[in-house]
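ugh ok fine here u go
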Amino acid sequence: MSFDDDLLADLNDLDDLDNEYSGEVANPKTNLQEADELMNDSDLEDGNDNINENTSREKREISALGEASSNGAIGEEHIALIGRLASRSSSIRSIAKVRYSNELALLLNNITSSQSAIDIDRQTIIGRIEDSPDYQLVLQANDISTQIAGEVLVVHRFLVDHYKVRFPELETLVRNPIDYARTIKAIGAAKDITKVELEGILPNATRMVVTVTASTTVGRVLETEELQRIEEACDCLLELVDSKQRIVSFIESRMPLIAPNLTAVVGSAAAARLIVEAGGLTALSKIPACNIQVLGKTHHSSTGMSSLTTKKHVGIIYYSEAVRSVPEDFRNKMMRKLSAKCALAVRIDAQHESVDGSVGKKFREELDAQVEKLLVAAPTNEVKPLPIPDDGPKRRRGGRKVRKAREQFMPSELQKQRDRLQFGKFQEEVVVMDEMEGSGMLGHSMGRVRATQMSNNKKPKVAKKYEKYMRAPTSGAVTSGLASIAFTPTQGFEIANPQSNSDEHKNKKAKTMHDRYFGSSTPFLKK
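structure:
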């Protein structure tokens, strides 16, 4: 190769290098595309974060509606939330996200597989119950069932808003969401609602009212697109109800195996909600009874709504079937008693004891007995009937001692005369112990009683052994020492010796006896 050829070859190589260098530097399109791709990726990540945040917020709202529906405590704020969620789109698939979610479909498949398998043996569970797959499935099913309950309300509101152009009065006549959806499905595209057969869907009285109201309704016939949208919403609501029934039946079948004693005390649905709220069976067993009664408490936002009907310090226990079956006056007391029994039952379940639920059944029987005792009416005071007027006084038993004791307190004749008043005449009044007392008929007695007589029964009695000391002398004198003063009609007062009188009496008696036998005038007895 000559020198010229080598020089040309070197020049060609330099041109190639220049082209390569100019291509790397002078091609700004490549760098801009890479920057745009990076920006799009960051925007996509931000969009995903916003979507996830909105989805989680919607789940919380739907769960709050489900809890309010289960507790029967739907307020004005819940009604406003239902209206907002139902009006955000005209497509039912955009509203019923739980129904068309993969989470619900996967859960139903797992429930079907678990029900077809052999039931778990509670005796083989060792360690924490939270590690059991059925336990995790029960918690997930309980959470989704709450979301389904809230979404049923939203779909029902969607149906009411879209069907009121056809039959606006139906909302007030049929309150139940399930019956409302079935009624719409039965009516369909019929132009004359009065000819639609609603037997088996509504009660007889409601069916008659619906038929009469439909004859005077101001609604219009729906278009094909509107009717399809409404029927799709009806199918969605009925499918949600069916899914919830399957989930509830699964929870009720598994809760007696996971927490038999707690289920026996408070019920399967409330037991599952308590476990979910506490974060597990072990965590629930560490909570005291005073805090169990407020688990699941609904926190109302201060939006200016009235709080008169809001229950304070109540939660899942208060809205359970065991408490709601008690009259309103005894629900707070029943809630405290039930919370105490739940605290004991859940600790037994956490230790895998009493696997047949016998302790929980015993607790429930005790609660039922206490409720029956509370509901027993207070004993009424028995009204005794009056005695028959013709009956005389009852004969009362008594004896001599009773009569003697009674006679001492009977009024005397003098007291009886004092207590009597003569008609038309003034009674005399005397002052007795600084008090004015009337004399009654004292001194004015007529008839047989002419003078005040003293009854011997009223005289004070003296024992017989003391009577000889209280006898008066035979002569009527009052003795004093060895002499006595006596009063005679002939001599007046005279001082006499009672001992001499007794001696004279004795001498006279002896003389009489002597004269009788030895006297000169006493004749002899003839034989």
